[in-house]
Design brief:
single chain; alpha+beta; five-stranded mixed β-sheet; 5 strands
């Protein structure tokens, strides 16, 4: 499954996109854990001290807001991005 990261999260991840492998019964959380496995700087940026997603980080699955407990499937696209501001 493919992850996309934006803005400073892409920098912390070492790139804008990456693919991860998860089991067939995986959840969004499992996919996030696979992403963070060797990206400590990204983990520090997106998770709080309790292991929950920081409030200011957006997590999407196939373009819609996602919860950790949602199942994922082959071909899903997951995305992490910081809040967007502007005027």
């Amino acid at each position: 499954m493919r992850w996309k990261m934006f803005a400073d999260l892409a920098e912390a991840a070492g790139g804008r996109t990456t693919d991860v492998r998860v089991s067939s019964d995986a959840t969004v959380r499992d996919a996030l854990d696979a992403l963070l496995e060797d990206r400590e700087a990204l983990g520090d940026r997106v998770l709080d001290e309790d292991g929950d997603l920081k409030e200011h980080v957006n997590l999407l699955r196939n373009g819609s807001a996602a919860e950790f407990s949602e199942p994922v499937a082959d071909g899903d696209e997951l995305a992490l991005f910081p809040p967007v501001s502007g005027g």
